[in-house]
Amino acid sequence: MVINQVPDVVFKTRVRDESVAGPNPFRWQDRTTQEIFGGKRIVLFSLPGAFTPTCSSTHLPRYEELFDEIKAQGVDQVICLSVNDAFVMFQWGKQQGVQNIFLLPDGNGEFTRKMGMLVEKDNLGFGMRSWRYSMVVDDGKIEKMFVEPGYEDNCPTDPFEVSDADTMLAYLKSAKS
């Protein structure tokens, strides 16, 4: 299945709101695909799960490290998507010290499913998760996609060869020249 445009979904996010009393000043906010991707050039990378080894040691940290260089290539925002809920994504971002990457929860896996990237990870006790990939999205249209090899349910390995930040940055630099 070849997808040329990001699917139309509503993401369930949490946003800080100082008018909310108590120790957890956040409220729910629905964000549509149009709000997130419309009129912007976005780099999105998707990974199997918050707090998991490769995602936490390499995938997210390297995008955070190269954020300024990626933005300098005409990118408006860098998004990390995972089939995790908003609470997990928030705590993972805090634990990782994320300052620049927008952590986008796909709690129900709807976006991931419509992208054709939803896989079973029952062999690890994860349930349904995202296959690892990255993409450049320009005003909702997919400009370039890097999908890890070996896409399959319950894959015994976790390929991490092409969805990394360095591959993305190299692509953006070559596309700009």
TrEMBL record:
This is Glutathione-dependent peroxiredoxin. The keyword Cell membrane does not apply. It comes from Moorena bouillonii PNG. It is an enzyme of class 1 (oxidoreductase). GO terms for biological process: cell redox homeostasis; cellular response to oxidative stress; hydrogen peroxide catabolic process. It catalyses: a hydroperoxide + 2 glutathione = an alcohol + glutathione disulfide + H2O. One of its GO terms (cellular component) is cytoplasm. Keywords: Antioxidant, Oxidoreductase, Peroxidase, Redox-active center. The keyword ATP-binding does not apply. Thiol-specific peroxidase that catalyzes the reduction of hydrogen peroxide and organic hydroperoxides to water and alcohols, respectively. Plays a role in cell protection against oxidative stress by detoxifying peroxides. GO terms for molecular function: thioredoxin peroxidase activity. Signal peptide: none annotated. Coiled coil: none annotated. InterPro entries: PRX5-like, Redoxin, Thioredoxin-like_sf, Thioredoxin_domain. Gene3D superfamilies: Glutaredoxin (3.40.30.10). Residues 1-177 form the Thioredoxin domain. Belongs to the peroxiredoxin family. Prx5 subfamily. The active site is at 55 (cysteine sulfenic acid (-soh) intermediate). Its EC number is 1.11.1.27. Pfam families: Redoxin (PF08534).
